[in-house]
Write a structure and sequence with these properties.
The protein is about 20% helix and about 30% strand. It is α/β, with parallel strands linked by helices. The protein has an 8-stranded parallel beta barrel. Strands 3-2-4-9-6-7 form a 6-stranded antiparallel β-sheet, with no helix packed on it. A 4-stranded antiparallel β-sheet has the order 1-12-5-8, with no helix packed on it. The structure holds beta-D-glucopyranuronic acid.
């Protein structure tokens, strides 16, 4: 069990959560001398930057954008006197990729992994009714022993540089919200829910962990605020009559209120919006509330102008509006768990999420997208350091599932993106990861991973772990693009026939397919990179999807253009977006809208 609570920060009758977002002091530490120079007590300089945000795109110096190493942040936190007696926490939505936190000069937390929250318990350190100095050292170096994978090299001039084994810019810093929290010493720590539908009623089995022994009370309120069910005890069942189900693009949310009681006194209170729904895989179907669902939507990124990977509430809103407009019903959080606010919005809007752990770059290549179809093998899971990587990966799986398990929007876990699967060494590694996810998820949601082009039916040794087989395929782009598209189609169909012949009796979905397209380019007849070619490519791919009954979903790569490392394969970023980075449609958006709006929800069900 994690040694801190993952519950989202909330103010309730017993809790306080105050945002620490805003302008923080900021300093690069090129020489790695911060500690020696006493920065834990206060950092040098007077530079300020916004939190949350990636630090890279504010500045005009390339040395800052490409900076690799430690950066330091500092702010003051005023802790109200009336909070004395409670536990005081500072909660980071994420710090990419690792952090050490100091309060009043004392180290209070360390965390490894850049896309999941952690808490620093500062109860014993803080001064009440006074300002407290909060300093955070964040490091953004990539390694092969943590996820996402990559390496850090040193250039001839002594500067360090990140070399990602993945295709997105290594944005970093304090990219998500920071909260100062006061929580009762006896508090709700975690809870699990599972659902069963019985005719028009529903049963919600719950289990609640607290840090004390006082009795627990649970109430469920409907959308009008009326009590729909209640129960006593840390474990039990809520019986909901005439339950309103959480449906695709038609969400219904109940409010779950958990209280720890000392006679009539509320010791702690936590609440969360939940949705009643079941998810399962049966044969080749993905079932939501027992009915087949055909997924349509995107692989996305948290990526936008200026703030980079920083959580941006306005961009989130725009993205959901565009997804609704185009008729999408789902997305994958490629290639890392996203900000918690995005899941809250998906809960409300009825979008289905395939939640992905940051296990990307598990194939040693600086251009894996180009090398993915060459048959190249890098013996990635046979390194001396593989056990260390596995440990970090398991921890991220645990943090992600603990954080996200109670969101109705989360229908599946994606446990790796495009790993190497063609060597036997991958098999025991996969087994540990997939078993862990099954053990941790009370709802036993389907598990998947995205298969790279090299992972073909005859070569892949790991597809059997997936409850839903997810393919990333680029026939017509990296393989036989342009006028060779008829060959691409032939090869694509040949591979699909290979999967069909295996008769796995599992649903297949496409988690990636796409073609780089410049929003500025039109060409008649088409050439690759023109909007006309993106349309042609999609017509071909859709024909293939429609020919195989076991294909139960399509999530195009990518929702929007996004930033990557510079290089000859990328024109200031990856341009496979259906929308530009500024969130305006390319031509292909209208083609997709037409298709997705016309496919029934239970297409091929
Ligand atoms: C796959 C990756 C993805 C890339 C994409 C592409 O999963 O991150 O951005 O292909 O090449 O290799 O566009």
């Amino acid at each position: 069990m994690l040694d801190y609570s993952m519950l989202y920060p909330k103010t309730t009758s017993s809790r306080r959560a105050v945002s620490m977002n805003g302008m923080w002091k900021f300093q690069l530490d090129e020489k790695g001398e911060g500690e020696r120079n006493g920065w834990p007590e206060g950092i040098a300089g007077d530079q300020m930057i916004p939190v949350p945000a990636s630090f890279q795109d504010f500045f005009t110096k390339k040395d800052i954008r490409e900076y690799t190493g430690d950066v330091w942040y500092e702010t003051d936190a005023f802790v109200p006197g009336e909070w004395e007696g409670k536990a005081i926490w500072i909660r980071f939505g994420a710090a990419t990729h690792r952090a050490a936190v100091y309060v009043n000069g004392v180290k209070v937390a360390e965390h490894e992994g850049g896309f999941l929250p952690f808490v620093a318990d500062v109860t014993e350190i803080v001064r009440y009714n006074a300002k407290n100095k909060v300093v955070v050292k964040v490091n953004n170096e990539l390694t092969e022993t943590n996820i996402p994978c990559g390496r850090t090299m040193t250039l001839a001039d002594g500067k360090k540089m990140n070399k990602p084994y993945f295709d997105f810019f290594n944005y970093s810093g304090l990219q998500r919200s920071v909260h100062l929290m006061a929580v009762p010493k006896e508090a709700v720590y975690d809870f699990d829910l599972t659902y069963e539908l019985c005719g028009s009623d529903a049963k919600i089995a719950y289990s609640i962990q607290t840090t004390g022994d006082h009795p627990v009370k649970v109430s469920l309120y409907d959308a009008d605020g009326n009590e729909a069910a209640h129960s006593e005890g840390a474990e039990g069942t809520l019986f909901v009559q005439n339950a309103h189900l959480w449906q695709v693009r038609n969400a219904y949310l109940y409010r779950l209120v958990i209280q720890i009681m000392d006679d009539a006194q509320v010791v702690d209170e936590y609440e969360q919006e939940i949705g009643i729904r079941t998810v399962e895989v049966k044969g080749t179907d993905i079932l939501l509330n027992g009915s087949p669902v055909y997924l349509r939507g995107f692989g996305k990124h948290e990526d936008s102008d200026i703030v980079g990977r920083g959580f941006n509430i306005g961009v989130m809103k725009r993205d959901f509006e565009l997804m609704k407009w185009i008729g999408a019903n789902s997305f994958r959080t490629s290639h890392y768990p996203y900000s918690e606010e995005i899941y809250q919005m998906a809960d409300r809007e009825g979008f289905l999420i395939i939640d992905e752990v940051p296990a990307v770059g598990m194939f040693e290549s600086l251009m894996n997208f180009a090398e993915a179809s060459t048959g190249k093998s890098t013996a990635f899971f046979e390194k001396e350091t593989t056990p260390v990587l596995l440990k970090a990966h398991l921890k991220a799986v645990e943090e992600m599932i603990t954080r996200d398990k109670n969101h109705p929007c989360v229908i599946a876990w994606s446990l790796l993106n495009e790993p190497e699967t063609t060597n036997d060494a991958a098999v025991p590694y996969f087994k540990e990861i997939f078993d862990k996810a099954r053990e941790l998820d009370p709802q036993k949601r389907p598990r998947t991973f995205a298969l790279i082009m090299n992972s073909t039916p005859d070569k892949c040794r790991c597809y059997q772990f997936s409850d839903i087989v997810a393919l990333n395929r680029y026939y017509g782009w990296y393989v036989c693009g342009g006028y060779e598209i008829s060959n691409a189609e032939m090869m694509f169909r040949k591979e699909m026939d290979g999967w069909k012949a295996l008769d796995l009796n599992k649903p297949f979905i496409f988690t990636e397919y796409g073609a780089d397209t410049l929003g500025s380019e039109h060409k008649l007849p088409s050439v690759m990179w023109s909007q006309e070619y993106q349309d042609e490519y999609l017509e071909m791919v859709h024909g293939v999807f429609d020919s195989y009954d076991f294909v139960k979903g399509e999530q195009i790569w990518n929702f929007a253009d996004f930033q990557t490392t510079e290089g000859i394969m990328r024109v200031n970023g990856n341009k496979k977006g259906v929308f530009t980075r500024q969130r305006q449609p390319k031509d292909v958006a209208y083609l997709l809208k037409k298709r997705w709006e016309s496919l029934p929800l239970d297409y091929k069900g």
